[in-house]
Amino acid sequence: ENMPAEPQENMSSEERRQKKKTDANRRKKERRLANARVEKAKAAEVATIDAVMPTLEAVAAGVASAPGTMRSERRDAGEGRGFGMFATAQIGAAEEIASTVPALSVVFDESAADVCGFCFACEEPNEREVAVVLQRTDKGFGLILDDRPSAGNAALIAGVVKDGPNGGEVLIGDRLVSIDGVAVEGGHEGAIKLLRSACERLGDGVGVPCLFSRPGRVFCAGCNKLCACAGCVKAGRLDWHKHECQAFQALPQRAKAGSDTSVLRLLLRFRMTQQPEIGDWCDHKETTTALTSLQRNPLNLDRTQLATLAALAGVSANDAGAIISMVRTNACQVERNGKKAGCALSALIGWHNHDCAPNAAATVMEDGRIGM
């Protein structure tokens, strides 16, 4: 390349043709090498998650945790086909094969204020009055009042002490409207004064009659990314949510500022379920351990993005990649109010979906279970 080019006029037509061919081949080789360098650079930035076939041990563990009413069984579908689901009874069209509460789920940011982050309920919010005679012990009523400024005079219940004297009767999100017939004014400060006055007036050992306003769903003012229906609040799921809420609030602001944080929140929820002192948000749902029985398709992810997500969520890059791969391969879409509201991941559904020509379909039912 550094040799001086021979003048074209001194070359024969054959030599010119040969030189033209040589130059074309050289440029072609240079382009090929340049493309190879680009692909190599891209490969360094991409984490490839290979296809995964579950081990026999994982399959056995998943089957052991499957619902007892399942009308199918999982077994080897033949060489090269993986594991398939086979009916164990005659099943008619539109009949349910099996159902379960999914192992992992998340509601997208756009629907977080309207769809319950646990059971996906989305009824219109409605307030109803609830009369409760508050009981007290030497430690008090076991209620935590929200001391943040808020509109209106009622006092907001921010927490209920577990195993306290009013657990199950008063719920997080309730608003204390009146105490012993006297309307609450001035929020939590006014409520505290009225409670003290009522206790002095009624004497020890006597309950305090109160009136509460109970919302149809409670929006978490901590993370602003989850609401819970009244049923899930009563089941104590907002108490469980405080763990993932605190983890989300502790994230850098830039991580919470995106248009949708659902992937990050899904990984945070997974992390909470892996901590023995926290566990799952209910005891009759599918465990995240069952997800290891799922078959996964190969997936390419941006290596830097994957590492960042894993670090923010406090999970390993391997776990983060596996969950994202499972979601893209097996997740069931949650549809509420005529739009995609979230996604749910279930081993049970993943098992039934592995067929090129499926004759069963998954749906997220009104009560939050996934049904086949």
Automatic annotation (TrEMBL):
One cellular component (GO) term of this entry: nucleus
Basic and acidic residues compositional bias, start-end: 13-25
Domain of life: Eukaryota
PROSITE patterns per the UniProt record, alphabetical: PDZ
Residue ranges annotated for the PDZ domain, each copy included: 131-198
Location of region: Disordered: 1-37
Name the UniProt record assigns to this protein: PDZ domain-containing protein
Organism name: Calcidiscus leptoporus
